[in-house]
Design a protein that fits this description.
The protein has two helices and four strands; from the N terminus they run E-E-E-E-H-H. It is of the alpha+beta class and about 80 residues long. Helix 1 packs antiparallel against helix 2.
Length: about 80
């Protein structure tokens, strides 16, 4: 799993990408305690997101609507 911090972004805080499962997980500055999962994201999208001049704009144009509804990962501390 690869981790990245979006230092210059106004929208994104950090992200991780698992190349074996193609799962992109993003944390946003508007809600830094909650991550969102985007399944089936190709590796080149992760590479381009990290290199984008505006990570927030790249996310909106290339990830947000293209990879389905984001899913919050399961919280292991939550009672069922």
């Amino acid at each position: 799993m690869e981790l990245h911090t979006f230092v210059e972004s106004d929208a994104l805080l950090k992200g991780s990408y698992d190349p074996s499962t193609h799962l992109l997980r993003l944390w946003f500055k508007s809600g830094p305690d909650r991550a969102y999962d985007y399944p089936r994201v190709p590796a080149h999208i992760w590479t381009e997101l990290k290199a984008a001049q505006s990570a927030g704009r790249y996310f909106r144009q290339n990830i947000q609507d293209q990879y389905g509804e984001p899913r919050a990962p399961a919280n292991p501390w939550r009672r069922r």
